[in-house]
Amino acid sequence: MDTFRLMNPLRLGGIPLGAALGAALLAATATTATAAVAVPPATAAPAPAPTALTALTTEEQRLSGPVPQEILRRGGFADAAPDFAAALARTRTLPQAQRLATAEGQRLWRRAVDRAQGRGPGPERAGDLSRDDDRPLYWARLGMTRALREWKPAFRLSGPQRAELTGRVERSSRGQDSVDLPAGEQVKRVLITGFDPFQLDADPRRSNPSGAAALALDGTTIDTPAGPARIEAAVFPVRWADFAEGTVERTLLPHFLPGPRRVDVFTTISQGRPGRFDVERTNGAWRGGYPDNANVSRTETVPVPPGVPTVHPQPQWTTTSLPYAAIAAAATGPFPVHDNTEVTEIPAGADEPVDRPDGPTPGSTARAGGGGDYLSNEIAYRATLLRDAVGLRVPGGHLHTPVLQFGQGNTDPATGTVTDPEFVRNRLAIVAQVRSVTAVAVAAGRTP
């Protein structure tokens, strides 16, 4: 396997939801729940009792390591999970716990956004990690979901109910339920998305510049030649199951439907190749099997959750409507921006995959989009498929950032530090260029 494949799994692999869709998405979310503890038959109703503890997830197990604990401490988020656990211990009913899970998740998201944008407490409380760091949010969220999993409530709580509470923390602490695009014609409405850090077994110090960009830009207004643009952001997990259960569609659909707050531009963003940005021209309906943050692999056609607006039959390919030529031609920052047209397909009538430098051929079967066959390709496919299903005619697609790298002499996770000046400079430069690329996308408008 070549170095590129080892570094980058790209090539490895305001409007309420309708009742039917909401029910379908809620049911899908509940499929990850642990079954309720069985209660033996009795002649009298049993007294309320706490359920048994559920097993920690793979991600939550990593939380006890020295690197995550240092990031939490130095990022000023070490108190998030203990404070949440203490508040949980004071709840006496399921509705109380539901309100707490949502409110505390939203509080964590807002706290991370404020930190990234220079608001909130000073270094004595915010920690000495640079404010642009996305990692404290990631590890603090896992601390909160672990606290929910370990919680012994004073009332009976089923496995699906506990999972629903965890889902509330997940959605609200990622900004997925707080996207607030303005109405009116005076400002363009932009929605961007980022990802959690990933490949953490190889290096738990990793950050994801797409997540950092989401925190830095959420709720900001940028100036463009087409006028001001308001940016709202959300972050997604690096987990196959969440995508199959509809987390992308649940988040995006309210903002894709007709109305005064519908998006004017959307861009899903993830970390991609070393040293370059890529506007991905084509997205493929294929999961290539690379392990996610839960160490789970999936090799299959991208599954569309039930109840979600979609295109029938499911297409093998979707295409960007971002103004890719204008973005690639603009001087947006220190990194080159490529209009990436590569895909991997099985041609019609053939059995073996082939690489195509200029996009798919008619009737072919997807094996990798321009963004590969991992979750970055999948979020691009899902977002653009949803765009087509609801008839949304705006610029939208996927942007890959450069790989965020540590400085020379700090590349060994066994001996290196959790941050260094070059690491911070690289992340700040990537985030600044994401802002500039977004301004170009707004100004250039939709491609034919």
TrEMBL record:
The keyword Ribosomal protein does not apply. Coiled coil: none annotated. InterPro entries: Peptidase_C15-like_sf. It comes from Streptomyces hiroshimensis. SUPFAM superfamilies: Pyrrolidone carboxyl peptidase (pyroglutamate aminopeptidase). This is Pyroglutamyl peptidase. Gene3D superfamilies: Peptidase C15, pyroglutamyl peptidase I-like (3.40.630.20). Keywords: Signal. It comes from the Bacteria.
